Amino acid sequence: MNMRVKEVADLVGISVRTLHHYDEIELLTPKTTEAGYRLYTKEDLEKLQQILFFKELDFPLKKIKEIIESPSFDRQDALETQRKMLVEKRRRLEQMIRTLEKTIQYSKGEIEMTNKEKFEGFDFSHNPHEQEARKRWGDKAVDKSKEQIVGMTNDEQKAMGEKMNEIYRNLAAIRTSSPESHEAQAAIKVWYEFLNSNPSYHYTLEAFKGLGQMYVDDKRFTNSIDRFGEGLAKFMCMAMTAFADNNKK
Predict the structure, then answer these.
(1) 122-246 architecture in CATH?
(2) Strand-pair category, 3-4 with 38-40
(3) CB-CB contact of 135 with 185 (8 Å)
(4) Spatial CA neighbour of 19 closest among 47, 42, 59
(5) Is residue 77 helix, strand or coil?
(6) Domain 3-68 and domain 122-246 have a common topology
(7) What is the pLDDT of residues 73-115, one digit of tens each?
(8) What are the residue ranges spanned by the domains of the chain?
(9) Which of 73, 127, 243, 248 has a CA that sits 20 to 30 A from residue 89's CA?
(10) What's the CATH code, domain 3-68?
(11) What are the HTH merR-type domain coordinates in residue numbering (predicted)?
(12) Per residue in 30-82, pLDDT tens?
């Protein structure tokens, strides 16, 4: 039985305006009666479910539309992939909740915490916005980067993540200094060298500069990086720009 827009909105828990917007951008276009009522079929509801799964994984609507409308799109394969991604997201959230609970106890003076324990769960070794990277730099660079990670053992991947977090913490500690200072440039050089430690792909100075700009242009990246210290994303962007400009031949 077909459902009207208000019925779908109530069923799913989203606004009628959201469904109208999906129709306007041709992401989810139900059939319309002569009287102008939108009617959603069983297939429309399944498509809406796919859209909301992708949204939960932080995919932008434009990218969702591109994926779903691709001739190679396979719903079953997408469901399996989405399940794996959500399970990984749950694992990270559970770790962060444990860290948060320990931090609450620590702030009350009930327990002690090492600096390392304070950042457990903040794992940036797996980029949550891979699709954005693909759009900006193409599949080749992302695939080569992933090939290296796939070839690593779990211990090697963990060590890489810990090294990355250590660099973020070191940069956060000096984020109030000038991004062009010797100290800041030395620290950002470590980040540049870390990114280029992958033998399968090399960040040019221009790509490094562009990456820094994305840290402030994309709020998702800004929020993730600023977890190590407010204003860190902006500081890194400025430091990376100065590094790229100063090292051009």
Answers:
(1) Orthogonal Bundle (1.10)
(2) antiparallel
(3) no
(4) 47
(5) helix
(6) no
(7) 888 888 888 888 888 788 888 888 888 888 899 889 999 988 8
(8) 3-68, 78-121, 122-246
(9) 73
(10) 1.10.1660.10
(11) 2-70
(12) 999 999 899 999 999 999 999 999 888 878 888 888 888 887 788 888 888 88
* Helix ranges, the chain (H): 5-12, 16-24, 42-56, 61-68, 75-107, 115-118, 130-137, 139-150, 154-173, 182-195, 205-217, 219-225, 232-246
Residues 199, 149, 231, 205: what is their CA dihedral angle, to the nearest 10 degrees? 20
Q: Contact at 8 Å (CB) between 205 and 191?
A: no
Q: Which two tokens stand for residue 10?
A: 């109530």
Tokens of 104: 């609450």
Q: Which residue has the tokens 């997408």?
A: 78
